[in-house]
Design goal:
By secondary structure, the chain is α/β, with parallel strands linked by helices. The chain is 46% helix and 14% strand. It has a single domain (8-194), classed as 3-Layer(aba) Sandwich (Beta-carbonic Anhydrase, Chain A). Helix 3 (60-63) links the parallel strand 1 (48-52) and strand 2 (71-75). Helix 5 packs across helix 6 (125-139). The model has no long low-confidence stretch (mean pLDDT 95).
Length: 195
Amino acid sequence: MSTTVISADDALKELMDGNRRFMEEHQKHPHEDRQWRYSLTEGQHPFAVILTCSDSRVAPEIIFDQGLGDLFVIRVAGNVAREKVIGSIEYAIAHLGTKLIVVMGHEKCGAVGASLEIDENEGHIGAIIQAIKPAVYLAKQMEGDLLTNSIRNNAQMVAEQLKEAQPILTREIKSGGVKVVPAYYKISTGEVELL
């Protein structure tokens, strides 16, 4: 198992190379064998944090053609970042040495779609809807598809929110080589587009 910390730029290249293999159906399916699994009992050293939606069609390890221990994945409806999500990201950055955070929205996101229709705070889903609403308000002023623009805006706004999360993330972004990158996954093609 490699314990070498890789830069945010190298991590992003590894993700995008893996996504290209996935789209072209030339996956390597790395880090799945017994020996690799055994090496993971000594610890983890993921090279990227992926904050994405809970949607069953969005599986980062598959989309980026990565294996066990490669990605620190946080999945929550609408890829919103609240206290516990930010704390999980901080853990990966501060304790595991990960340098790249990708906030990935996706085509036809149901949570964002619900935020286009629901105004009231109903149950716990209301907290997710309210977190997405600023992206919807901005999208309503843009040309193009409202849902797609809202999803893209949401990923970008969450990325900005993470960049401003005090004290750990802001410190690591300023001096530790950490980068936060928003992205959009197209379910129909398999492509991850960086925003």
